Structure formats: C-alpha cells, structure tokens
Amino acid sequence: MRLLQAQEIEDIAAGSAVLGTGGGGDPYLGKLAALQAIKKYGPLQLVEIDELNDDDLSVCPFGIGSPVPFLERITLDKELAVAYKAMQRWMGRRVTAILSVEIGGMNSVIPFAVAAEMGLPVIDGDGMGRAYPEAQLVTFTLYGHSAAPMAVADARGNAVVVNSIDNFWAERLGRPAAIEFGAIAGGFGYPITVGDLKECAVLGSVTYAEHIGTAIRQAQKEHTDPIDAVTKVTNGFRLFDGRIIDVKRKTERGWALGETVIEGLDGYGGRQVIVRFQNEHLVVIENDEIIVSVPDLIAILDTERGDPITTEHLRYGFRVSVLGIPCDEKWRTQAGIELGGPRHFGYDIDFVPVEERFSRS
Amino acid sequence: MRLLQAQEIEDIAAGSAVLGTGGGGDPYLGKLAALQAIKKYGPLQLVEIDELNDDDLSVCPFGIGSPVPFLERITLDKELAVAYKAMQRWMGRRVTAILSVEIGGMNSVIPFAVAAEMGLPVIDGDGMGRAYPEAQLVTFTLYGHSAAPMAVADARGNAVVVNSIDNFWAERLGRPAAIEFGAIAGGFGYPITVGDLKECAVLGSVTYAEHIGTAIRQAQKEHTDPIDAVTKVTNGFRLFDGRIIDVKRKTERGWALGETVIEGLDGYGGRQVIVRFQNEHLVVIENDEIIVSVPDLIAILDTERGDPITTEHLRYGFRVSVLGIPCDEKWRTQAGIELGGPRHFGYDIDFVPVEERFSRS
C-alpha cells in the first residue's frame, strides 16, 4: 500500500487528464474533491491488486453524462452517496475496495475521495486504461464481467438500479436516467472480485497516470519540452502542433459531441487536422483521412505548458499539440477493436496502431 | 372472496375498456391471458379489501409504454416475471395481494393472470378508477403513497428498479426504460399495505367494471340500446353520435398521441367534435371549446354494439358514440384536479364536472 499526499493526487489528476483523451470532465474538480478528502481523512490509500484477497469485492464509482455540467457540480458527493446506498441494498454484499472505471479526468480521481469516506483502499488500475464515453466500453466486457448491478442517482435522492443482461444494456438503461437527472449523475457499478480483476482490469494505470503527471510537472519546472516528456513516458507520438481555429460542439443524448479544427504551426505549417469527439476524442483526420483512431488515445495538450485540455475547455486560438498514445493491449485484440474501435463509433475503417503509422521524431 | 369464471372476466374486460377511456391497450389480449389462467389455475380470486389484514402488502403489476405494440405482445408474462423478481429483491418483503394500478384495458385484467400464477388474490379496486397515461396519476399520489420501488423489465431479462423521491420522478425514470425496451415493458410498483389502500385506492372498481360489461352484454342480447345501458350504470352522459372522419396519431416519448374527428349523425347532424388523446382520451372539443375534460372519463363506443374502442383501433368510417362519465370523487378534489386535470395536460381551463354541463336526455 502506498499513501498518497496532495502532490501525488495532483500528478494523478494531470496524468489521467492526458489518458482521458479530452473526456472524463474537468480533472481539476475531481482533484479538489480528493484534496478535501486528504484534509479530512489523511493520506489516501492506493493498493496494488496483489495486496488484496481474491474474494475481495471491488466496485467502481463514476460520473455519467455529458461533462459540460461537471463545470458546475463539483464532487457528485450526494449523487454517489445515494447511488452507493441503492447498489448496496441490491447486492447485499460488503464492498472492500474501490476501482476507477476509467483513467480520465474526474472519474479517476473521485474514487479517492469516495474511498476515503468509506475507509476503503483504491486499487491501482481501472477498467479502460483510458476514458471512453459508454458504460460497456470497459475491458471487463471483454471478459464477460457485468456492469450490473449499476446504480445511477441524483442529488435529490432519486436512484435507479440497472440489472441488465449485458453491458450494452447497462449503457442503454443507465444513460436515459442520467439525462432525466439533468445530463449528469453519480453512479456505482461493475462489482467484480479482485481475483477476476487480475484478469480483466487494466492494472497499474493509476501509477501510470501519476508518472505522466510527474513528467509534465518536472518539464514545467525545468523548462524542458512537456510534450516530449509525455510522449517519452507513454511511448506516444507528437502528431501535430498548431492553433485551434474552430470548435464545434453540441450536447446530444447525454453526450458532448463535436470537433476541433487545428491549423498547423512551425514544422506543421500549411496543414490542418480535425479531431472529432464524443465526450472523448475518437479520431484525428487530415485530408479526409483518419490518421489515428480509437482505441488508441488522442490527447490535446497546451503546447507550451503540456497541460491536457478537456473538450469543454478547448477554445479558438489555443496553441495545442495533438498526441497519439498506444492503448492497452486488451483493446488491440480482435474483440477489443470490435468493442471500442473505430467502427463502433461509425468510422468504417480498420484500426491501425499509432506506432505503425508514425515513427518517433 | 368471489371466484371469477370466464364470463365475469369477459365482463370485467369489456367494462374496464369503457373506464380505460381509449387507453390501457387492447383488453382482448389481457382477457385472453386471464382466461388462460383460469384454464390453468381454476377460477380467479377477487377479494373485497375488508377480507384482508391491514398489514397485508399489495403491489400493482402493469404494462408501461405506448399501447400500440401491445397488439403484438400478448401477456407481458416474461416481462412481469423479471420485474417481479427485481422488485422482490429490492423490497425483501412478502407480497400478499395484487391490485390493478388502473381500471383500463390490459392493466386491469392482467393482474388476474399474474395473481393466479402467484397464488394471490386480486383486490376489488384500483389506483385510478379509470386509466391515465403517467405513473404519478394515481390516487395514491394524493395521499403521499409512493410508486417506488418500481421495477420495469423487458422479455430479454433486463430490469430497472426505480427508487424515486416522488411519483413524478417514478414516471420520469420509468418511462425512458420502457422506451429503451422498445416502447413497451412490464412493471411492478406501488407497494402499499391494505390498511393504507382503504384510504387511498378507488375501491370496488373491478365490480363496477363488471357491471358495465354485463350491461353491454345484456343490451346486445336483448337488442336494447347499449349506449343507454352504459350511461345508466355509470351515471354518464351520451355526448355525441357520429362517424369518424379522421384519426391522427403518432408515437412520441413512449405515448400514443393524437386526435379523432367525429362528424355528427342523426340528432347530432351538422356538428363535429374532436377527441384528443395521450394514450387515454383527454378532452372533447366542439367549436374550439372543451366540453368535457379529464379527470372525467371520455369513452368512445361502437354505437350499434356498445363495444368500447381503444384509440389504436379507431378507424375512419366507424359509427361511434362519445360518452362522458363522472370520475371518482378523489379526482374532483382540488389536489385531484391539479394532479390529473386539464392543466396537467396543457389545457388551460378550469375543470367542469360533466354533469354540470350536460343534462340527462
């Protein structure tokens, strides 16, 4: 077990915003919640999976909905308390550990606040190794583990428990509830034993996020290139440097949908790319061709400072760098590509791993 | 306790289709399910509320959604089995009686099939004394009794348990699930003790429906006027006789919405009325004036035979009679009119009881 202080939480928040590929909501807010929890409960507990018993039961707390309203509602603490109570009532089994459903923005830092309140440890790992916009898009699905029972709740005290036959139905039934709640809701789901998580989770991803965050912080401190620092830690690729010349976005069916148009600068002058998103970045398009796609990660970072920018904060004029980062191997299996690859999001192309298309500069 | 044979079930089905005011789905299908249950389990048990103990717990099975797909899915037996299991798991308390949530079409006859399978009696009463298109539009709401926990399920095995803070939220959270399930779902809800039902339910309404059904059947047999027979049993009013010249309908947000235009015949020649519906009939309009409205009941019956016609069966050319029937007194209180009156459905008029506007012919 490792005890996390404020600095570690800050690094995890920054790093998971990179892995959040534009989604997951403003990590600053999740970080605030975790820092408040440190103040109240002391350092937060991060455990490696091997430190737990195989029959320990883990659940994932999450925010569900379009990230835009996250800007107003900070911690989802009331929502999560209602959801947890509902899930517990349904399950009738004691939970002994907390896992992030995704490494991305709020959803990867909020679990620390939740776990501190519950006196439980957070497992070093998550269910995606990135962020994804739909409940079934977790590596758990690839191994037949259920999102259900999944409880979704609002701050008023309303809760819905989804007991679905599969994780696609968990998504179909959970999201309408979040939409009724006003586009954002708190939830608990994915009750999975530690023994099963060893096979089906993306392990070590909290530490991975922390390394990314640390690299950005050190580059800022040492005035070295933060983008290069991130590509080094992630084995990622610097795809494009430029200035944002347009951001289109709309909220539809509970998602933030849109695209960002970036005009090349410096070595990228005269070129233009479009990055499309559904909460998370899905594809990078240049000259009508998709040059990087899910399941690989697409991150947009402030070129100067290396700070990751979530889609709701992207603005005209920002100087940004676009990175392509290899996803976890679980997503690169045939089943993984079918579940979370380009065709799932309506792009009829074969997935090409980012390292096959780009070479390191 | 009274044992119901096939004839009683047929009469209840016919009568509750009158009280269903155009909604509640095709009563023929609910009747089939109940008749099958008689075949399998013997006569069905109808009990008066006083025959049960005050701490007996009753629940209401129901179909939720637009009635149109009812035409294809007969009994909702799989849906209801899944929903019941989910609700039981949430409640953890034994159910000892079954109540119709509404007297209207399928939802008032299906409970007999469900109860027979569960070996439970059906209480002579319901939660509306009519049919209504939204989950909160029950007399229970007027007395502060909750629709929750409410379980909604499909035939695939998916279930959602809604644990809402009030019955408006039960509606808002239950309907989207039904829509995801394909516009129709089976559900259980409104767990209320017999002691509380004595105050908040519309009691005796199954027998009332049976009397209406019997009156129609006898009029058909004796070749007397079946419309007059219904107005006599219900203290209702024959508002209009005519021929349907137009039916507009659409399915929207899980409801069948539309209107029926009827051109007067015989004594009503030269006149025209429009009957608007949201699953159930809401208002009768003549010369741009609302002449009857919810919460009073508006029924459209075949003029010759007296058979009630649900909105999905209304067709151009049908010869029909429009009836206005006084609703239960609970709906005529200030709270009742606010909950289920014209303004709830967007008609900005004061409710005028049908007997104040019309006199008996």
Could you give the count of β-strands of chain A?
16
Low-confidence stretches of chain A: none
Determine the fraction of residues in helical runs of chain A and give it as a percent range. 25-40%
Oligomer, anyone? homodimer
Shape of chain A: globular
By DSSP (H or I, 4+ residues per run), the number of helices of chain A equals 11
Main interface by residue count:
A-B, 20 and 20 residues
Biggest beta-sheet profile of chain A:
9 strands, mixed
Rounded to the nearest angstrom, the distance between the terminal CA atoms of chain A is 38 Å
Q: What this model shows, in words?
A:
The structure is a homodimer of 361-residue chains. Chain A has 361 residues and is of the alpha+beta class. Chain A folds into 2 domains: 2-203, CV3147-like domain (CV3147-like fold), CATH 3.40.1610.10; 225-357, CV3147-like. Chain A has 11 helices and 16 strands. Chain A has helices at 6-19, 27-41, 77-91, 106-118, 139-142, 167-180, 194-200, 205-222, 226-234, 334-340, 354-357, and strands spanning 2-4, 44-47, 57-65, 97-100, 122-126, 150-153, 159-163, 184-193, 202-203, 237-252, 255-264, 272-278, 280-286, 289-293, 297-302, 319-325. In chain A, strands 1, 2, 3, 4, 5, 6, 7, 8 and 9 form a 9-stranded mixed beta sheet that branches. A 7-stranded antiparallel beta sheet of chain A has the order 14-13-12-11-10-16-15. In chain A, helix 2 packs parallel to helix 4 (106-118) and helix 8 (205-222) packs antiparallel against helix 9 (226-234). Chain A is globular and about 60 Å long. The two termini of chain A are 38 Å apart. The mean pLDDT of chain A is 93. Chains A and B meet through helix 3, strand 7 and helix 6 of A and helix 3, strand 7 and helix 6 of B.
